[in-house]
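Appendix B: complex inputs.
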Amino acid sequence: MAKGVKPRVKVPKKASAGETITIKTLISHKMESGQRKDGDGNAIPRSIINRFTADFNDQNVIDVTLEPAISTNPYFQFEAVVPESGEFKFTWYDDDGSVYDTSKKIEVS
Amino acid sequence: MNLKLWISCGVAALATSAAAQDSNALAVDGEALLTEAAAPLHMENVDTIYSGWRFRASETQALQSDDFDNPGMIFVDQAIDLWAKVDGSEGKSCASCHENVEDFAGLRPTLPRVEDGELVTMENIINECRTERMGAEPWKWSKGNMTAMTALIGLQSRGMPVNVAIDGDAAPFWEKGKELYYTRVGQLDMACSNCHEDNYGTMIRADHLSQGQINGFPTYRLKNAKLNSSHGRFKGCMKNIRATPFKEGGEEFKALELYLASRGEGLAVETPSVRN
Amino acid sequence: MILENNMTLTRRKTLALGGSALAFASFAGAPAFASLTDDAIAEMTGGAEIGEGAITLTAPEIAENGNTVPISVDAPGAVAITLFADGNPVPAVATFNFGPLSASRSASTRIRLAGTQNIVALAKMEDGSFQRASANVKVTIGGCGG
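Resulting structure:
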């Protein structure tokens, strides 16, 4: 597990059924591109988050493939539609095999 | 003579009007922050002071106007965890003595300040807690734990005007900081004032020179994608002018921090700000 | 001032001429000229015709720092959008696959650009067709900030 990885997500607490809501996500991660060299001239191996998914009640909202050109501390903003009350699950997949996730409940009226 | 004067006036006008600080207003999640103020009386050569935010591109400015979009907030989140984490021989965390970090609202704008004849910064105060009360190792000046914690504590004062004491006990430190500000150093033989007082608003290659205000520190820089301490930034400036930097946390930089803070009197604390 | 503008225009015209001549050369059947981005797009589309106009790519004209360049894409009716940066060592940037609960076929992120270059967005639409948009982003080389 990479050091100091911490996800942040912003989801409204309430919405009406069928409403479009904006979601923002951010995770602290170096996103080492594999293009850099250390002080001795050796290539620093690539170590990035390579996939991010957002699901709501087990249905997919967005599934993103990330390449090393995504900035340090990857940020995404996108829109979802919520048919009923439930839980968003956000998952980030690290090159090193680690998986980070966080959930947010939303009340739909 | 007349013609020469005309030309130089024209050139000066062009230089400033083409690239002066913008007139955007900063609001974070709807709360307005003052990025412009009348210069404090002790500043002889500047009429109006501007936050560094005003010199940035609109995309960079936007990163600071929403706390979720501000990448510096990741580190504030980390500091909230650190706040409650027990460390050291006494089995204490910050939260053991200080129930709410909100209680530190009002601290940031008054630092650095003199305590028992010594000039102390927020880093000094945090490390004193760690070594004297927690029995823990002090944190390094510009490392992640420290910049995260100074950001969390500084954030509690966001929006409050910078207001440091420069008279009484503080006067000799302030004088020393002022002297450093105007002293030319390094192979390029430049003082802080040459860029940040004589030439703010103009371009240095593709970069827009600011007034070198420190009201937003620690600041998240796009350059290195982390929070940067003011002393770390001073070090960077000194390297750029090919000088041997003073030590982070040393007497010189602490005095300079006090003097620079006093040049920002009246600007809102923006911690953690976002800069290039 | 006017003279200066004219000069700039003349230089730009010359550059534009040079550019189109180069484009023509690569179009005229020299695959060695094709970029990695063009190769990747050709592979994804299988050579199908690519439309324009139903996809919007928003990027700053000038990026203050190539480390963090905010961009957004919006292609109503897309199932997936892939982003490329044609001047990066690895042109692929990201692919957004939209699921059933995605409200709009839009997304924003922050990307790294190694220098001034074109960003290309390629959307695969629900009917299997493709849409493309591109934007040029100038990346400044900083003084003290960069």
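Chain A has no helices and eight strands.
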